Amino acid sequence: MFTRHDSLRPGYEAVIIGAGGHGLAAAYYLARDHGMRDVAVLEKGYLGGGNTGRNTTIIRSNYLTPEGVRFYDESLRLWQDLATDFDLNLFYSTRGHFTLAHTDAAMRTMRWRAEVNKHLGVRSEAVDAAFVKRMIPMIDLTCAGHAPIVGALFHEPGAIARHDAVAWGYGRGADRRGVQIHQQTEVTGIRVKAGRVVGVETTRGFVATPKVLCAVAGSTPRILDMLGLRTPIYVHPLQAMVSEPVKRWLDPIIVSGSLHVYVSQSARGELVMGASLDPYELHQTRSTLDFAESLSSHMLDMFPFLGEVKINRQWAGLADMSPDFAPIMGITAVEGFFLDAGWGTWGFKATPVCGKTMSHTLATGRNHPLIEGFSIDRFARYQLTGEKGAAAVGH
Question: Residue 128: beta bridge partners?
Fold first, then answer.
């Protein structure tokens, strides 16, 4: 699907670090919408091998802040046309998304989110436990007595897609428009002269460029160290697991903040499950038995009939968390260096809108209006974009 390039050019109009969904989407829209085709995407591993290939594929726009809702709603709109844009089946499937409430306080938050969503034109409703049971007949509303379900936020447009196909589609589209994708090419340094970027050092030599976009998720602190830039990002492992295929019984996507569970069922019948971040900072993608046991226990609280279902595999990604649970995007203090980071556990659903907004920002040198609330200087100004109420669990 992609052209193999034996060598790097001496220079490019722009260099993107990271061949995940965000980096490839930015390259795609730079070439398609802004005519910037002299672009290199550099990836130390393989295309889509980071968090793009390690997430649970949930897509939604039912966030809490106006900035978050507008941003993700635009992403949801873009998602619906991607398969046609790519001429590639992304297995995009609208399922509906339930965020379960187990306490009266949680239910108040669901009503708050529903009102913010509806005010901004996003289809979300606060629903009672009877509605949840009608839509998900197999669920145990008592959750084994541990955390009875009292209601939920129902987000009708919630969807899932095939994550690796998204990376392939953006990568192939960028490649066909002249962008060069270089896998197994690690960035080892970034050259700056008089406060502006002049090029990058790689394991395959130096490349001159006036513009660099960093889209490397959990590796962000390592890249920023090359420039002496600091962010409040901290990195935690985020694990997930998938069951053996079983007959389709779960259509909606389910998230529970109290039980630390989110789950959907794939087109092949697998239950794709995740939980909250591992409770320690660690730059490793190791899997743990503790995670599998804990998540299985909470799944059985909701669905006790799954006791004999086997787990096929589990894995982990590196979640780059920000203090206010919102991303860090746009221009930085180093001229020509642009940042797409701080995604934590919700970066996959933002893939299309990140590509659109970051390509605009690179091409014009100005932050796209949709990412103004995500600029890095908000921390210095103490004007945070607090998304914890809609993103703290994971998805």
Answer: 151
Does residue 74 sit within a domain? Answer: no
Residues 370 and 240 in one domain: no
The answer to whether position 80 is within a domain reads: no
Q: Give the CATH number of the domain where residue 375 resides.
A: 3.50.50.60
Chunked into runs of 10 residues, the chain (395 residues) has average pLDDT values of: 93 98 98 98 96 95 94 97 96 97 96 97 98 98 96 98 96 98 98 98 98 97 96 95 97 95 96 93 92 96 97 96 95 98 93 98 98 96 87 56
Sheet of strand 271-274, all strands in order from the earlier edge strand to the far edge: 124-128, 151-155, 97-101, 253-256, 261-265, 271-274, 234-243, 311-321
Using CA atoms, how far apart are residues 196 and 205, in angstroms rounded to an integer?
20
Alpha-carbon separation of residue 296 from 137, 157, 238, 258, 304 (angstroms): 20, 27, 16, 15, 10
One domain, residues 383 and 335: yes
Non-local CB neighbours of 308 within 8 Å, separated by 6+ positions: none
The answer to whether 307 touches 233, Cβ cutoff 8 Å, is no
The candidate with the shortest Cα–Cα distance to 142, out of 126, 127, 129, is: 129
Number of domain units in the chain: 2
Asked whether residue 140 falls in the same domain as residue 284, the answer is yes
Amino acid (1-letter code) at residue 274? G
Question: Is 362 a domain residue?
Answer: yes
Residues 99, 113: one domain? yes
Note whether 223 and 328 are same-domain residues.
Answer: yes
**Residue 207 in contact with residue 199, Cβ under 8 Å?**
yes
Domain that holds residue 168: 14-54+164-233+323-391
Maximal CA-CA distance, the chain: 64
